[in-house]
């Protein structure tokens, strides 16, 4: 009785060649699957890389904006400085003219500002 | 080591106190400018310039040292701590802000400030007062109060001023030629 059962099990579980067709079907299916699905990055890392990239782009934009602002501030300060020097020179010239006119009232000359 | 540190601390304290006292006693050559609101309202053109040491430093960074006029301006402002200008131009006559000017002149008292020039011209109908703060043998502050029939201007320059350097800028940036040497 036991021997019969053993024999039947051996027969049922014996190695059977699936055949050429089955092997072909499996290899074709593997070839059709895209690479990234086989070696895909975990979703958490994907989000992390997107966040890092966004951060780099944002930092570059902020740095560019700050550089522009600094440049605008510098050019405005330069413009104000030149205007201040112009006004100062003009008023010193006026003082000189007035002093000169008082010293030589008859000359009537203009120092030409 | 601790004893040394304690000694240093005791030596440092009076030094710090002296420094703080000196800083507190250092004269403030920046005038408290009135707002001149009434003038600003009636002016056809007004200029208000406030350049403190930080802004002067920034402006200096934007002056090209390879250009002679920029280099001269850079040299001129190297010793300055601030430039403050208020200037108003009018289409017609204006009311001279006596109260504001009196308030300004109160700040220009001796011995810190000395009036270099005080001229009244009937021909030009202009009044110009120039004050200078002199300390340690050099000019540390300059104030110009100028009133003309259609213009009123206050200039306050704080810091080491070299008028010769300012003179060297004449003819540049629209600064008029003073022709001081030729006329002397």
Outline of the structure:
The complex is a heterodimer of chains A (113) and B (184). Chain A has 113 residues and is an all-alpha fold. Chain A has helices spanning 2-12, 20-32, 35-38, 43-103.
How much helix, percentage-wise, in residues of chain A?
over 70%
Q: pLDDT under 50 segments of chain A (min length 5)?
A: 106-113
Separation of the first and last Cα atoms of chain A: 131 Å
Mean pLDDT reading of chain B? 79
Features of the shown structure:
heterodimer, A: 113 residues, mainly alpha, 4 helices, 79% helix, B: 184 residues, alpha+beta, 7 helices, 6 strands, disordered C terminus
Task: Show the helix and strand layout.
The complex is a heterodimer of chains A (113) and B (184).
Chain A: H1 2-12, H2 20-32, H3 35-38, H4 43-103
Chain B: H1 2-25, H2 37-42, E1 45-52, H3 53-61, H4 68-77, E2 80-89, H5 98-107, E3 113-121, E4 126-135, E5 138-148, E6 151-159, H6 163-168, H7 180-183
Antiparallel strand pairs in B: 1-2, 2-6, 3-4, 4-5, 5-6
Task: Describe, in plain words, how this protein is organized in 3D.
The complex is a heterodimer of chains A (113) and B (184). With 113 residues, chain A is mostly helical. Helices cover 79% and strands 0% of the residues of chain A. Chain A is built from four helices and no strands. By secondary structure, chain B is of the alpha+beta class. Chain B has a domain at 82-174. In chain B, strands 1-2-6-5-4-3 form a six-stranded antiparallel sheet. Residues 19-25 and 179-184 of chain B have low confidence and may be disordered. Classes of the chains: A mainly alpha (113), B alpha+beta (184). The A-B interface holds A 70, 73-75, 77-78, 80-102, 111-113 and B 47, 49, 51, 55-56, 58-59, 61-63, 73, 76-77, 83, 85, 87, 117, 119-121, 123-124, 126, 128, 130, 144, 146, 148, 153, 155, 157, 163, 166, 169-170, 173-180, 183.
